Each structure stands twice: as structure tokens, then as C-alpha cells.
Amino acid sequence: MSIMLPSAKRKHDGDAQPGIKLGKMFTLRLPLVHAPLEIPEIVQALVVFVVGVSAIAYLQDIFGLSFSVALAVVCVHEAIEIFNGMFGEPVICGWITPAIPLITTWILKYESIPVRVQALVTLQILLGIFFIVFGLTGIANKLVTWVPSSIKAGILIGAGISAITGKYGFMAVEDGGAGIFKYPVSWTVGILIALYLLYSTGFKKIKESKDNGLIRLLSVAGFVPALFVAYIVGMLIGEIPTPVIDLSQGIFFNPIPGLREGFHTFSAFAYGFPPMEVILSAIPTAFIVYIISFGNIVLATELNTEAGEVRTDENVDVNPDRSNILTGFRNIVQGLFAPIVVMSGPLWTAMQVTTLERYKQGKDSMYSLFGGVISFDMAKAIATFTLPLVALINPILPLGMSLTLMIQAFACFNIGFSLTTNNTQRGVAGATGAIMSITEPHIGLFIGIVIYLVVEYGFVRKKDQETETVEN
């Protein structure tokens, strides 16, 4: 169902959605005025907003932030994502989820909270610069080609190992663990249901054979149903407290006091210029995060191009350079004023795929892709500002954080090993990943490159490498 003003209607089939041109690359589209409100996307966002809000737990746990400051930071993150669609990028953006284990491990090596803040600020600003510079210069496409598959696989495998062995996985509670040993029953229930819904071949067959509303909802919601089941189980057995909803604070959250406090304790202006050792360590870490995230820009381009071939009535401009620039801008702004561990990524794959599937059903199902993207991002941001909704899910946030990382670990292994084509590459990837999980990312990356040069590349002709791939 689409709700829009007459100004949001295209004059002819094949036209681009109306908007205000801002140079060659950007077009401003305002909700209702230039982009319809899509009710299904709004409803969907009110369910899955819990995923974004779970970033509060990272901020409280790693940096000791108060709830109001952490929620203010997340509100900025969610609000700034709206501009992605409004400025011409037809993509639902999200976290750089595969990089979260590496980022958290890297930050936690610093014992001082001020240094951790400086490290996060430096990392996010550098990442934003990489996105913009690599996007404008065209280095991005070449970079991903230059990085060997075994090294890319090793980066992902290392992230997965870091998640499983780290604080939010299988670390003992007495050592600071906040995973399975802190929530043994609810954690186990949640992760098993989540893995079944997301990766089980059995559930995939059910989706293919049965087309009904419940199955579609479970497919779209990802790990959210698993999280809510774990929530209920946790409350019943006493692992998780019951929610407390205090309406005396109002319905909508005012982020200004939290941002004001955060400006002095959690921003680029809080603790001055970071130490040189932090900067030198952040550069390769930001590079690794960029390598991980760039694949999402490529994927978003492919998904939107495919949808455009089906929906010839709307001309959707697909531009990877614009995606790089907008993602870089969001990271720099957040890094300066409200840094966040999960970073600002170019794509939320599950939600983009779901939105495109409805978009491909025709104009009556979704008038414009921009309407679907902007409606989803707006509703998600509004839900984040709604205190009763946030209070309802607040007790589950620490468990949600742990489950997110465990699911991502599985995804990292899944994708990482799929990038390799022979046993030699798998060996290089495994060694690189293992080293990266126990040392600093740049050291692991350097050693991985050395192993690659010695084992996989050294004086071997391309034809010989192809032969080895076939034989293995």
C-alpha cells in the first residue's frame, strides 16, 4: 500500500522517481513529496528495529556509557541512515556486521576507556575517508581484485574465531564473558533457533515448498524471532529480568542531553588527539573493515540492477561511487560526534532482498523502490526514539549482542570458506584467520600476506594455479 502526494507520481513509465537534482550524482527525495510511504515496509521496520537498538549493549559494555548516552548515539546512527535513500541511494543500509568481532577485539585490547574512545573515533573516521577516497578514485574495484581470495577468506575466518572465543562467545564469566556461560539456557535456545531459520537446509526447503504469511515473516525477520523466544525463556527461568516501562519519561526520547554529555565523554572532541600508536594500529584495521564491507556495495549494485530489469516502469540509478561517498560521509559524521562500534555499512542484505522481492511484484505492490527504502529507514528510526518500545526490549540487549556475534561468526565461516577454491587456499585462509584472532589485525594481515606469497604465489605460473584448483 502506497501513500503519496501527486508530486511523487512519475509522468511516464521508465522515468526516474521525481526529486530535486543535486549535481550529477545526488537527488534529494522527500517522503510523501517525492517518495511514497510504503506501509508494509513501515510495519516490517517496527519489528526488526530491535536489531539496531542492540548496539546499545556494545556501547554500555565496552565504554561504560550510561543508557541515555548510548541510546542517543544509536538514535544518531539510525537517523542518519535515512539520508542514504533521501539523497539517491536506493539501498537499505546497516552495520558492517562481519567486522564487529575484529573491531571489538581490537578496541578491548586498550584498557583505558578514554583510549578506547580515541581508538573507535580514529577507526570510524579513517574508514569514512577510505570509503570516499577509494570510491572517488576508482581504487575500490581494483583493490578487491588485488586482495587474494585466501586473504579475504582469512579475514572473515579470523573475525568468526574472534567472535566465538571472545567476550560475547565462549569466554568464562569469571574472565568477563557475557555469552553462553552468562545466559546458558536462553543463549542456547536463541542460537539454535536463529541458525535454523537463517542457515538450515530444512527450513530452506520449507520456504520453497510452502508460501504462507508465517513462513515469509520468519524468513524476513531473520534472528528476531529467535531473540524473542530466547527472551521469553530467559524471563521464565530468571536469566533475564522482566522489562520496566516508565511512561513518566514521556513517549519519545530526547537525545539532546545524551549527546551533550557524549560530546564531552564520547566524541572526537572528548580526549584530544589520539596517540600515534592508536593511529598506526587503526589504519590497517580500517583497511580490513573496508575490504570486508566493499563486497556489500557490489552485492547491492547487482541486486538493484536485477530488480531494475524486472521493473522497467521506474528508472533506478545504480551508482557504486555514490554508495561509497554516502557511506563514507555517514561514518565520518558519526566518528566525529557519535562513534559506534558497529560502523555504518552500505547494505543490510536481508532487508534489501526482502524489499526488492516485493518491489519486483509490480507497481501495485510497491510504487517506487525509493519509497520502500525511505519508509523502512524512517520507521526504524522513529521506533528507536520511542521509549516504551525501547524499554520493552532493553533487558534482552546484552543477549541480543551475543547472539548477533555468534550468528555472524557462522556467516563469516560460511562466506570465508566459500571464497577458497583449493586446499592450499583453505590452508592459507585458516592460518591467516587463526593468527588474526589472537593478535592485532595488522599483524595477522601482514603474516597472512607473507604466507600467501610463500605458499600460494611464489614463482607459480597462473596456469599451474588453475591446474591445482581443478585437481583439488
From TrEMBL:
Ribosomal protein is among the record's keywords: no
TM region positions: 42-59, 90-108, 120-141, 153-173, 185-202, 214-237, 278-299, 332-349, 369-392, 399-419, 431-455
Source taxon at top rank: Bacteria
Signal sequence coordinates: none
UniProt keywords, alphabetically: Membrane, Transmembrane, Transmembrane helix
UniProt keyword Transmembrane, yes or no: yes
The protein's name in its UniProt record: Permease
Source species of the chain: Vagococcus acidifermentans
